[in-house]
Amino acid sequence: MTDGSGSVITTASPQSSKRRDNSARQKQILDVLLETGSATIEGLAERFGVSRMTIHRDSHALVQQGLIDKLHGSIVLRNKVTTQKTVNFRRSRATDLKDAIIQRAVSLIQPEQVLVLDDSTTVAAMLPLLPALAPLTIITNAVGVIQALSPYPNLKLICLGGDYNPPRNAFFGLVCEQAAQSLRANMMFLSTSIIHNATAFQNDQDVVKVKRIMMDMADQCVLLVDSTKFRKGGLHRLASLSEFDHVLTDSHLKPSIAKALAQEDVNLEICT
């Protein structure tokens, strides 16, 4: 197919689009299970706006990968330690899409700034690039951030303690919230579970509480979200996208979504 100028226009086949949708939804089902441990088929169907049969097919695919078990009417993580390596699984998904987002995010940082980093796998992809920008002060509730950056003496690390959440490898709860309230920062970098109707959602209320307080710490907040997270669903409201100084996503975002967000005064950046 060509446009009026003779340029070739390529379109994805319905089959390839469907496979991408299925893969993205299965990743998000795993995200839910990593946060909650289990979920009902009916609840997942309602959350993602699909039929129960579709969720059954997704569940079967995840069973085949050895990640979950199906029970009567529900699904559970097969082994939290194994699927936690899904912090390996999650990190490996959409890696190519995240690269451009990460490069743009890092370009916003100046030496000697104080940064807040959440426990998301998207933000974790920034970590190898931070030592080159030292000196920096890093505030985080994520154990993985501390472990990754501790070898670098020019990076001052402040860990927010609290109740340890093994699946997320991070701290939450009242102690974490109180510690965050006493600190200030230049920028926060974070991600979220789902974007729907210009709103960021998380699947765990405790995560929302800590992220909201961490956002309030910072002069600017930068949201990093690959295009697979723009879909129906979401349980707990984190924030309107208009509350973020930058919303960074990749070039696979549907043009109709980008147009709608522009009308909502969202500072959206398509990273290429």
Automatic annotation (TrEMBL):
<protein>
    <submittedName>
        <fullName>DeoR family transcriptional regulator</fullName>
    </submittedName>
</protein>
<dbReference type="InterPro" id="IPR001034">
    <property type="entry name" value="DeoR_HTH"/>
</dbReference>
<dbReference type="Pfam" id="PF08220">
    <property type="entry name" value="HTH_DeoR"/>
</dbReference>
<feature type="domain" description="HTH deoR-type">
    <location>
        <begin position="22"/>
        <end position="77"/>
    </location>
</feature>
<keyword id="KW-0805">Transcription regulation</keyword>
<dbReference type="InterPro" id="IPR036390">
    <property type="entry name" value="WH_DNA-bd_sf"/>
</dbReference>
<feature type="compositionally biased region" description="Polar residues">
    <location>
        <begin position="1"/>
        <end position="16"/>
    </location>
</feature>
<keyword id="KW-0804">Transcription</keyword>
<dbReference type="InterPro" id="IPR050313">
    <property type="entry name" value="Carb_Metab_HTH_regulators"/>
</dbReference>
<dbReference type="InterPro" id="IPR014036">
    <property type="entry name" value="DeoR-like_C"/>
</dbReference>
<dbReference type="Pfam" id="PF00455">
    <property type="entry name" value="DeoRC"/>
</dbReference>
<dbReference type="InterPro" id="IPR037171">
    <property type="entry name" value="NagB/RpiA_transferase-like"/>
</dbReference>
<dbReference type="InterPro" id="IPR036388">
    <property type="entry name" value="WH-like_DNA-bd_sf"/>
</dbReference>
<feature type="region of interest" description="Disordered">
    <location>
        <begin position="1"/>
        <end position="24"/>
    </location>
</feature>
